[in-house]
C-alpha cells in the first residue's frame, strides 16, 4: 500500500499497517522530518485508551496541562482544573508537531514501512486491480491501496472524486520562544503552571489560545467558518485572527518579544466536518484519513487524535480485507459526536457572551470539559447540559 502524507494520520496508518505485516510506502512532500506544521499541538491523553503505543508521553510530548484558563476578550477570566469523574487530573498533552510527527514517522520506519520524503504527489489513478500515484518529479508508484493522508488541502481525495465540496475554517499560529537566562527547556515563568489559555469573544465563530511548550509558547486563533473564505475575506480574517492573538497575549501581560522580529504567523485551513460524504472509493482502493477526510471536531477544530484514530481504523480495515467498511466504521465512531459538536458550536458561537457566562464560567461546565478530555463524557452530555441551562439559566450547576 501507498500512504500519501506523513502527518499523524498517514504515519499512524503506515505504522499500524506495517506492524501487522503489510508492505507500506509512506510518501511526504516535506524535504525531511522533523518538519513544521502550524498547530497548537494539544492532544487529550485519553487517546491512549483508543490506540496502542501512546503509553509513554515523555517520548513525544513536552508536558501535560491539567488546567484551563478561560477569558472573555482577555478579561473576566476563570481558572479551572480538569478532573476525571474519580477526581484525578484529566491531562492534555502539549506536543511540538515537528517532534511528535517525527516520532510517529520513526514508529512507522521501525515497524518496517519505507519512508520517502521530498516526494510530492500530483495525481492518482485507479486501474482495475491497482492504484497508481504520480509525482511532480515524474515518478510513479503502484499498489493495491492508496491512503490519502495529505491534510486539509490534500489532492488525493479530489483526484478520485472524494470530498469535492470541501469547506474550511481558518487558523493562524505563532511559536513564540522565550529566553529568561535559564535553560531553553523552561516552562514560561509568567504563566500558571500546567495551564492552557483559551480566550473567546475576539474572534467570531472561534477562539484564541496559548498552549505552553518547553522554551516557547504556541499562540494562535481560529475561526471555524462553515465555508471556504474568498481570498479577500481570508485577508480580513487574517487581520482579525492577528488582533485576537494580540488580545490573548496582552491578557497575560505579554507582547511579541521586544527586540526580536515579529514571529512568523502561519495561516492554515481547518477542514470542516460535513458528515455525509464517503471517505473511501466504492471499490475500497483509496481511503482518506485525518484532515484529508475532514475528520476534525467542528467546534474546537481539534484534529490530531482523529487523524490518528482514523489512521488506526484504516490500517485495521486494510489488514482484515474490509476496506469497503471503512466509511461506516469512521461514521460509527465519530458522526454522533461531531454532529453534536456542530449543534453545540452553533449555539455557542451565535450567543458567545451568554454561553461564556452561563457555560464556560460555570464550575459544572469546566468539570464536564475535564470529563470530556478524559474520554468519560461525550459531546452529547455537553449538549444536554446546554439545553438544560438554556431552559433554566438561573439554576446553579453542580
Ligand atoms: C493553527 C492550527 C492549530 C491547531 N491546533 C490543534 C490542536 O491544538 N489540537 C488538535 O488536535 N488539532 C489542532 N489542529 C488541527 C491539526 O493540526 C490537524 O487536524 C492535524 O494535523 C491533521 O493531521 P493529518 O495527518 O490529517 O494532516 P497533516 O498534519 O496536515 O499532514 C499532512 C501531510 O501530508 C503532506 N502532504 C500534503 N500534500 C502532499 C502531497 N501532494 N504529496 C505528498 N505529501 C503531501 C504534508 O507535507 C503533511 O506532512 C490545528 C490546526 C491549525 C491549522
Q: What structural category do the secondary elements indicate?
A: alpha/beta
**Quantity of strands, as a count:** 18
**Helix content bin:** 25-40%
Q: What portion of residues belong to β-strands?
A: 15-25%
And the CATH topology of the largest domain?
A: FAD/NAD(P)-binding domain
Tell me the count of domains.
Answer: 3
Mean pLDDT: 89
Strand order across the largest sheet: 6-5-14-15-16-13-17
- Poorly predicted tracts of residues: none
Indicate the overall shape. Answer: globular
Q: Give the biggest sheet.
A: 7 strands, mixed
Task: Give the CATH superfamily of the largest domain.
Answer: FAD/NAD(P)-binding domain
**What gap, in angstroms, lies between the N and C termini?**
51 Å
CATH uppermost class of the largest domain:
Alpha Beta
Please work out how many helical segments DSSP would assign.
Answer: 10
Provide the list of bound ligands, each named once: flavin-adenine dinucleotide
Based on the model shown, name its key terms:
single chain, globular, FAD/NAD(P)-binding domain, alpha/beta, TATA-Binding Protein, five-stranded parallel β-sheet, binds flavin-adenine dinucleotide, 398 residues, 18 strands
Question: Could you characterize the architecture of this molecule?
Answer:
Helix 1 packs parallel to helix 3 (97-110) and helix 7 runs parallel beside helix 10 (379-391). The strands form 4 sheets. Strands 6-5-14-15-16-13-17 form a 7-stranded mixed beta sheet, with helices on both faces. A 5-stranded parallel beta sheet has the order 8-2-1-12-18, with helices on one face. The chain folds into 3 domains: 2-65 and 90-166 and 273-340, FAD/NAD(P)-binding domain (3-Layer(bba) Sandwich), CATH 3.50.50; 168-270, TATA-Binding Protein (2-Layer Sandwich); 342-391, no CATH class. Strand 5 (67-72) and strand 6 (75-81) form a beta hairpin. The mean pLDDT is 89. The chain is 32% helix and 23% strand. The protein has helices at residues 8-19, 47-50, 97-110, 156-159, 231-251, 304-319, 326-350, 352-360, 363-373, 379-391; strands at residues 2-4, 25-28, 42-44, 63-65, 67-72, 75-81, 92-94, 114-117, 121-126, 131-135, 140-143, 146-148, 168-177, 195-200, 206-212, 216-223, 265-271, 286-288. It is built from 10 helices and 18 strands. With 398 residues, the chain is α/β, with parallel strands linked by helices. The structure holds flavin-adenine dinucleotide.
Amino acid at each position: 500500500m501507498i500512504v500519501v502524507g506523513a502527518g499523524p494520520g498517514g504515519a499512524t496508518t503506515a505504522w499500524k499497517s506495517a506492524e501487522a505485516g503489510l508492505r507500506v510506502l509512506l510518501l511526504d512532500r516535506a524535504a525531511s522530518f522533523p518538519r513544521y506544521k502550524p498547530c497548537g499541538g494539544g492532544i487529550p491523553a485519553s487517546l491512549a485508551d483508543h490506540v496502542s503505543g501512546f503509553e509513554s508521553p515523555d517520548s513525544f510530548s513536552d508536558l501535560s496541562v491539567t488546567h484551563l484558563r478561560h477569558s472573555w476578550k482577555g478579561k473576566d477570566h476563570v481558572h479551572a482544573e480538569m478532573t476525571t469523574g474519580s477526581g484525578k487530573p484529566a491531562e492534555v498533552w502539549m506536543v511540538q508537531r515537528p517532534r511528535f510527527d517525527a516520532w510517529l514517522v520513526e514508529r512507522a520506519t521501525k515497524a518496517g514501512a519505507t519512508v520517502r520524503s521530498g516526494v510530492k504527489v500530483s495525481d492518482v489513478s485507479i486501474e482495475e486491480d491497482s492504484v497508481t500515484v504520480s509525482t511532480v518529479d515524474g515518478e510513479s508508484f503502484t499498489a493495491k491501496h492508496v491512503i490519502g493522508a495529505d491534510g486539509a488541502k490534500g489532492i488525493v481525495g479530489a483526484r478520485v472524486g472524494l470530498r469535492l465540496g470541501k469547506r474550511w475554517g481558518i487558523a493562524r499560529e505563532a511559536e513564540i520562544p522565550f529566553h529568561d537566562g535559564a535553560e531553553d527547556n523552561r516552562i514560561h515563568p509568567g504563566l500558571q503552571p500546567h495551564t492552557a489559555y483559551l480566550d473567546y469573544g475576539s474572534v467570531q465563530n472561534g477562539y484564541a489560545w496559548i498552549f505552553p511548550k518547553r522554551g516557547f509558547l504556541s499562540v494562535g486563533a481560529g475561526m471555524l467558518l462553515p465555508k471556504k473564505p474568498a481570498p479577500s475575506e481570508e485577508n480580513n480574517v487574517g487581520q482579525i485572527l492577528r488582533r485576537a492573538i494580540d488580545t490573548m497575549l496582552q491578557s497575560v501581560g505579554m507582547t511579541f518579544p521586544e527586540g526580536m522580529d515579529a514571529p512568523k504567523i502561519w495561516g492554515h485551513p481547518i477542514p470542516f466536518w460535513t458528515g455525509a460524504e464517503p471517505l473511501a472509493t466504492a471499490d475500497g482502493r483509496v481511503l482518506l484519513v485525518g484532515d484529508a477526510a475532514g475528520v476534525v471536531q467542528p467546534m474546537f477544530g481539534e484534529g490530531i487524535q482523529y487523524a490518528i484514530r482514523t489512521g488506526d481504523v484504516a490500517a485495521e480495515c486494510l489488514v482484515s480485507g474490509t476496506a469497503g467498511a471503512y466509511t461506516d466504521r469512521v461514521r460509527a465512531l465519530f458522526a454522533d459526536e461531531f454532529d453534536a459538536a456542530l449543534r453545540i458550536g452553533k449555539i455557542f458561537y451565535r450567543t458567545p457572551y451568554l454561553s461564556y457566562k452561563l457555560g464556560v464560567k460555570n464550575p459544572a461546565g469546566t468539570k464536564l470539559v475535564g470529563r470530556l478530555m478524559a474520554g468519560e463524557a461525550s459531546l452529547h452530555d455537553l449538549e444536554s447540559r446546554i439545553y438544560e441551562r438554556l431552559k433554566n439559566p438561573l439554576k446553579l450547576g453542580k
